[in-house]
Design brief:
single chain; 268 residues; alpha/beta; 6-stranded mixed sheet; 8 helices
């Protein structure tokens, strides 16, 4: 298969996983008209908040997550792959949560998962700072999975600022890299498009960057502006700061063509 159809869901997450499961299911159903091979959702698809108490109260264990359960059923019924961008999940005997991205195959099974490696510990301005490492245990392993005979690399949000991760994924054969995110508004305005295009160009990969948007629980705000970038760095599709369903067909041969023209991975 050279062409693969991608649906990206940019949405404004609510305060609880149950609410967000209903929102996502509606988007899944809308996407089916496009007949996608892969549906992508943002980081924090189950819950997003700046209130730590709320987060730990409503975050589920993996076995109890309504979004994971619904997505597995939908993938099987609709014969589609789903990248749940990330779920914030509790783990038994562990004080911190994990920020975990899932690939659900078209049989409704978890094919692969990736735990976010780089924690968002930053001081953006006087009004906004984040300390993910206080609440989340970082992952340690990079992950590649195969969908429709195409190698996909997995990453999440803040990982975007660490080019070595993307280089390693590309060197291991990734032709497409998934980037679910919940980018802040100040950093999104100044860095989002530049960084997504840079990572795609550097590694001659398709970059599927699906971002959360809007205002969430406890006034947490996210940037939106999801994009799909070609291996040559072109924006093949984009959204703005409102909820959106973005449908794009990509031709995987563009990866080989870009790497033939500029074989920077081999030239290192």
């Amino acid at each position: 298969m050279t062409n693969i159809k991608i649906s990206q869901i940019q949405f404004e997450a609510r305060a609880t996983p149950k609410e967000n499961s209903k929102i996502l299911e509606n988007y899944y159903k809308k996407s089916i008209k496009f007949k996608p091979d892969l549906i992508c959702t943002p980081e924090c698809s189950n819950i997003i908040t700046s209130d730590k108490k709320h987060l730990f109260k409503f975050a589920n264990y993996q076995n109890d997550c309504p979004i994971l359960k619904m997505s597995k059923e939908f993938a099987k019924e609709s014969n589609v792959y789903i990248n749940i961008g990330s779920l914030l999940l509790k783990k038994k005997n562990q004080k911190r949560l994990v920020n975990r991205s899932f690939i659900i195959n078209n049989k409704g099974k978890i094919q692969s998962f990736y735990d976010k490696i780089h924690m968002f510990d930053v001081n953006i301005n006087k009004n906004e700072s984040h300390r993910e490492s206080d609440s989340f245990k970082p992952g340690k392993k990079i992950k590649i999975t195969i969908i429709k005979n195409i190698k996909f690399g997995l990453s999440i949000c803040y990982d975007l600022r660490f080019p070595n991760l993307y280089r390693e994924l590309a060197k291991k054969g990734a032709e497409v890299i998934l980037l679910p995110a919940a980018f802040t508004v100040p950093t999104g305005k100044d860095h989002w498009e530049i960084l997504t295009r840079a990572r795609a160009i550097e590694n001659n990969v398709f970059l599927i960057a699906t971002d959360m948007c809007g205002t969430h629980h406890n006034n947490r705000k996210t940037y939106g502006h999801s994009v799909l970038v070609s291996p040559w760095g072109k924006l093949l599709n984009k959204s703005f700061n409102e909820p959106a369903l973005i449908n794009t067909t990509i031709n995987i041969n563009e990866v080989k063509e870009a790497r033939r023209k500029i074989p920077s991975i081999k030239n290192e």
